[in-house]
Amino acid sequence: MRWFCALLMVAATSPLAAANLGGTTASRARFIARHRCAIVERLDAMHRPGAVEDGRNRFIVVALHAEPQRYVQCIFEDPDTRMLCEASSGAYGPAGDGRLKLDASARAALQALGYVQASPRENFSRSVELGHPPDFAIAADLMLAALHDSYGARPDSVIEIQAPHGGDPVAACRTPES
Which of 61, 68, 78, 167 has the fewest Cβ atoms within 10 Å of its own Cβ atom? Predict the structure, then answer.
């Protein structure tokens, strides 16, 4: 419990907390705490020696369960201390009424997190510096913050993760995977 309280205090003072337009800081902190490990472990597995040769398959997609248009995806760039991340704009969804339409507050939340949309026909994107050695929690927190603030995820939300070379984080995280 002490760890969770410390996480809430850190989250409240982080740059991501300042951008929290889509819900309370505590709600976002609980959502991030629930899912961070699974994402960090997958990114770490993708970054390990040997995984680098897999090239374009070194990506991760995190989406809300049963909401495939509400996603954030990231891919490693050279050098491996940076990732290019995209947040769904609905530009690539199905035509017509089934397409994701972000309202002004969802767009503002993505912009507050540093995402930009060059054209209405593209997703929102941003580069994420992970440092050296890379701190994968930076990318995980940003992806989860976007899901929370822009796409309506809450602490009890279930997510789906696709990462072809992301290993199996269940044992490392000691929690069931969403």
Answer: 78
Asked whether the beta carbons of 38 and 173 are under 8 A apart, the reply is yes
pLDDT in tens, the chain (178 residues): 223 333 333 333 344 544 544 457 899 999 999 999 999 999 998 887 655 555 667 899 999 999 989 999 999 887 678 999 999 998 888 888 788 999 999 999 999 999 999 998 999 999 999 998 999 999 999 999 999 999 999 999 999 999 887 877 766 786 544 4
Q: What is the CA radius of gyration of the chain?
A: 16
Output the six-digit token pair for 115.
């995402």
Q: Give the other-Cβ count within 10 Å of 23's Cβ.
A: 16
Tell me which residue of 135, 126, 158 sits closest to 62, measured CA to CA: 158
Instruction: Residue count of the chain, please give it.
Output: 178
